[in-house]
Amino acid sequence: MTDYHGSIRGAIESALRERDQLLDKLKEFDRLKEQLGQIEAFINQGRLLLGDEPKNVDTHKSEAGGLAMVHFLREKTNPEKILEILKATGRAMTVPEIVNEFRNRNWQLSEKNRMQIIRNALKGKPDWFGKEGVGLWNLKERVT
Fold first, then answer.
1. What is the distance, to the nearest Å, from the Cα of residue 141 to the centroid of all Cα atoms in its chain?
2. Which domain holds residue 61?
3. Which among 124, 139, 144, 143 is positioned nearest to 84, based on CA atoms?
4. Domain boundary residue among 46, 73, 100?
5. What is the pLDDT of residues 40-86, one digit of tens each?
6. pTM of the model
7. CATH number for the domain including 82?
């Protein structure tokens, strides 16, 4: 029985080390993602100063240097996340339901004012979202 427990303890310790290594890699990924965003902002500001059109890197186009990955690295905005939720559920939802979906998807919202953040996102995109009855929000094209 002691060997059995020792094997389990060893496996747990190994898993803990592996988890810590992965967490370190995720922290590095977040740092690189932020750095890439800063570089893209700098490039676009420079282009604006020169009178050139800034390039929208949030596309699916293939660009040299791996810039096409920016689309996948960029954090979605709250309205984009709500859009994804409403499309996936296929129905009108209340603000608390949308907040719960954020939690279910591990998307961060301030605990202090999460309901207001969602309300502001919904109201801020009247071309995307519309009210469907009292307290129910849906995609604009679904609202009757």
1. 23
2. 2-73
3. 139
4. 73
5. 777 877 777 777 765 554 433 334 444 444 545 567 889 999 999 99
6. 0.51
7. 1.10.10
